[in-house]
Design a protein that fits this description.
Length: about 475
């Protein structure tokens, strides 16, 4: 999908005290700008206020412990952990202060505390230096993309299973809208005197083939030359233009009537391909894992219902990326039905052009370092694999380009070292419901995103007959 058409204006309510503009420093990749803290102080990038480093250490310890155990965290569990070298009484006092400031909440009087969305946001924004997937998982990702075969859609579907297996969360992989992908090359191959095969390679790695029946048979003595000339002229004329734009373009000129006829026919077929291409599809992997991620059965049902509404998922993920975030926690994305969820997403690019999105959906008690590492690694490797598809389709040797194995730096992200991820289970992936999603070319900037998301959900349900 093109860089100009794939984005949405992020419409959630704005806090005037925060910078929501495109100038946000995204060097961490999590979507929040960060100022250099004073000595012994850490800046909360959500509120712009500073908290002392001791509180920050205690908060991070509580979040890490709760992610690990799913149980309210008491002061005794935190005391003595790295960075928390103070007494239990001091920890209790600081945890009470963090609760007053909105970072923690105490579900019961006698219980420990759990992080709020604000607490998770602080934790994500202050993750340590870039880390990497564990060695077994790095090898799993490399091996997967070194051996996966099939068409682009099969690659995307299997990628959703890979990402679900790496994270134990539901995964989402969104392919590009092919009619916005630029044309890379056009070839015409003679199948018989009156039948020609057109092969079109697009910038997102897709290869489209159409059989053309000519009105008049080609002269066998110069058919090969005429087809090669027409293919070269069509390539030069259409290269860089999206298929959707070709319907308004005239055929290139030629002084040869035979070649001219092929050019006219070829442009008509290219325009037809642009109008007939299926819109982007959403592949969801690991849906069954949602039952393990949430305690409440009703929450699981609600989340699975939303994942079935593929148009909602596409536009929600685009909204998050368009806001400058790669992590959306709880109500940050402005879509109430997923308020108990967190989303970690990453764009997929080929030659700097976005061609899709990968991400995971899980509870706000998500293992963010693990999810960030997996999503970034899979997004990078998927982009490289799609680039290899494109090079192969254009006849460019891939082995000499070093495409068979990405360098170590391609598989780094937020800190994570963990046990080997399970292999992708068979039957774990799919395009839920078989529904395909479209693309709104015009969107109203005057409607808030929660309202737009609600409208999208309602419209999709009306069209599919499915409800929550």
């Amino acid at each position: 999908m093109s860089g100009t058409s794939r984005r949405l204006i992020h419409g959630r309510d704005r806090d005037p005290g925060r910078d929501h503009g495109s100038g946000r420093d995204s060097s961490r990749g999590h979507g929040r700008s960060e100022e250099r803290p004073h000595a012994g102080r850490v800046t909360d990038t959500e509120s712009g206020l500073e908290i002392d480093s001791r509180k920050a250490s205690i908060l991070n310890a509580v979040v890490s412990e709760y992610i690990e155990t799913a149980q309210p965290v008491g002061s005794a569990h935190v005391t003595g952990l790295p960075g928390v070298e103070v007494s239990s009484a001091t920890v209790r006092s600081e945890m009470a202060a963090l609760e007053r400031e909105g970072y923690l909440v105490q579900p019961h009087t006698s219980a420990g505390r759990v992080p709020t969305d604000k607490g998770y946001r602080f934790f994500v924004d202050h993750l340590g230096a870039k880390g990497r997937l564990g060695p077994d998982q790095r090898q799993q990702v490399r091996s997967f993309y070194a051996h996966v075969h099939g068409e682009v859609e099969e690659l995307l579907e299997r990628t959703s299973g890979l990402l679900a297996g790496l994270t134990d969360y539901a995964s989402v992989v969104i392919g590009a809208v092919h009619d916005s992908a630029p044309v890379c090359s056009v070839q015409l191959v003679g199948l018989s005197a009156g039948v020609v095969l057109m092969v079109v390679v697009l910038g997102d790695g897709t290869v489209e083939k159409r059989t053309i029946e000519l009105d008049e048979d080609l002269d066998a003595r110069r058919a090969e030359e005429a087809l090669a000339t027409a293919g070269n002229l069509l390539t030069a004329h259409a290269r860089g233009h999206p298929l959707s734009a070709l319907s308004t373009m005239a055929a290139p000129a030629s002084g040869d009537p035979v070649v001219g006829t092929l050019l006219e026919t070829g442009m008509a077929v290219l325009a037809a391909i642009g109008s007939q291409l299926e819109p982007e599809k959403v592949f969801v992997g690991g849906s069954s894992r949602m039952a393990l991620a949430f305690d409440a059965v009703e929450t699981v049902r609600s989340v699975l219902s939303i994942l079935e509404q593929q148009l909602v998922v596409v536009e929600l993920m685009e909204d998050i990326l368009d806001s400058g975030m790669s992590v959306a926690i709880g109500a940050e994305h402005g879509f109430e039905p997923l308020a108990s969820c967190a989303l970690v997403i990453s764009p997929v690019a080929v030659d700097g052009e976005p061609v899709g999105t990968v991400g995971v959906v899980g509870p706000t008690r998500m293992n963010y370092p693990k999810a960030l590492a997996a999503v970034e690694a899979v997004g990078q490797q998927l982009g490289l694999r799609l680039e290899r598809y494109l090079m192969r389709a254009e006849g460019v040797p891939t082995e000499s380009q070093g495409m068979d194995q990405a360098p170590e730096t391609e598989l780094t992200a937020s800190p994570m070292e963990g046990p080997e991820a399970p292999r992708v289970p068979a039957g774990e992936t799919g395009s839920i419901g078989g529904a395909k999603t479209g693309k709104h070319q015009q969107r109203s900037s005057g409607t808030s995103k929660p309202a737009r998301a609600a409208h999208r959900l309602d419209d999709t349900r009306k069209g599919s007959g499915r409800g929550r």
